[in-house]
Amino acid sequence: MTTAPHTASRPDASIDGRALRTVCGSFATGVTVITSGTGDDAAGTTVNSFTSVSLDPALVLICLHENSRLLPVIRSSGGFVVNFLTRRQEPVAWAFAGRNTARLAETPHHRTGNGLPVLSDALGHLECRVATEYEGGDHSILLGQVVGLGAPADQEDPLLFFQGAMRELGEPVPAHGR
Ligand SMILES: Cc1cc2nc3c(=O)[nH]c(=O)nc-3n(C[C@H](O)[C@H](O)[C@H](O)COP(=O)(O)O)c2cc1C
Questions:
Q1: N or C: which end of the chain has fewer CB within 10 A?
Q2: What is the DSSP letter of 15?
Q3: How much is the pTM?
Q4: Domain regions of the chain by residue span
């Protein structure tokens, strides 16, 4: 078997972080804001590392950078909310990305019965209790047990992320596909 000269698939080669980020950017995802904090510490961070893991028990995971300001908030409250963003929430996605993230107080939200913040205009949300935290290089992998959910805006189109840019679906989602 021959390898095309333009592919760099040497398993022993050290991988450049920027190249890894660029190639991973070709995997299209939805966009979430993870919220946590039951009091004045309530905060949010834009995340696309969300994955659904298991139906029974109901488990999902997210990956957060070890320096994320949201990590201690999640560890202290013991839970987090995954908010799936709509196409119209691109400004919200950028507001909660980067070092100077938006204050949650400036974004419409309400609280779950456990006191965790939910973005009121999101496509849907999953409220999670942290089941396990794993080390994953420079990120923490948070496995969350889903304890509550809702999808009040599921007639909206989702916000997508692909090759470093926010995108939207090329065609409307058919009503019968829901
Ligand atoms: C589309 C998109 C997806 C992102 N996904 C993640 C992610 O999965 N995990 C992460 O730690 N940071 C992710 N980030 C970066 C964080 O949003 C950003 O570093 C963070 O807001 C910094 O603030 P914090 O210290 O409050 O986390 C993403 C940013 C964007 C724009």
A1: N
A2: P
A3: 0.90
A4: 37-163
Query: In angstroms, what CA-CA distances link 124 with 30, 47, 157?
Result: 12, 15, 11
What CA–CA distance (Å, rounded) separates 18 from 91?
25
Residues framing ligand 1 (Cβ under 6 A) = 31, 45-49, 63-65, 68-70, 96-99, 101, 161
- The helix/strand/coil state of 84 is strand
| 77-129 per-position pLDDT tens digit | 999 999 999 999 999 999 999 877 778 888 999 999 999 999 999 999 999 99
Residue of 47, 61, 66 best suited for mutating to test ligand 1, as the one with most atoms within 8 Å of CB = 47
Superfamily designation of domain 37-163:
Electron Transport, Fmn-binding Protein; Chain A (2.30.110.10)
Q: Which of 33, 68, 166 to mutate to test the pocket of ligand 1 (most atoms within 8 A of CB)?
A: 68
Query: Pocket of ligand 1, candidates 21, 65, 104: which has the most ligand atoms within 8 Å of its Cβ, to mutate?
Result: 65
In whole angstroms, what separates CA 110 from the centre of its chain? 19
- Specify the ligand 1 atom closest to the Cα of 69: 25
> Where do the H-state alpha helices sit in 16-157?
17-24, 70-77, 90-95
